[in-house]
C-alpha cells in the first residue's frame, strides 16, 4: 500500500492521506487539488477531473490487488433524497470513467453516495460537491504480503 500511496502522491495536485475508516480498516484517501468537483446538481466529470482520474487509473491497473471505495458528496441545497441521488450518480460517474480507462470492475468494492451527511462546514458549497476515492489492501494483497511477495 505504501508504494501505491507514493505513486498516487506523484500525480499533480493529488492529496494522499493514510486514514483508518469507520470500520477500523487502514486505507489511503486520495483527493485532488483540482478536485473531483461537480457543478450544482450535476454528475458530469470536468476535463481536469478526467485528466487526474486517467493518471490515477494507471496506478490501479498496475496493481489489481488494490480494492477501491468511491464516495460521492453534495452541498446542502435541495432535499435529502435529491442530494442522495446526485451523490450516488457522482460516485458512479467516477467508477464508470475509471473502468473506461481500463480499471477492473473487480477492484470496486464500494461505490456510494452519502448526500450531504458528511458536509464539511469549513469548505464552500462547491468543495462539498465532490467525490473521494479510498484505496484498500485486498485479501490477495494481504496474503501476498504475509507470504513475503
TrEMBL record:
Q: Does the keyword Membrane apply?
A: yes
OmpA-like domain segment(s): 25-139
Keyword Membrane among UniProt keywords: yes
Q: What are the annotated GO cellular component locations? A: cell outer membrane
Q: Which organism is it from?
A: bioreactor metagenome
Keywords associated with the record: Cell outer membrane, Membrane
CDD domains, per the entry: OmpA_C-like
Places the protein is found: Cell outer membrane
Q: What is the protein's name according to its record?
A: OmpA-like domain-containing protein
Q: Please name the InterPro entries in this protein's record.
A: Bact_OuterMem_StrucFunc, OMP_bac, OmpA-like, OmpA-like_sf
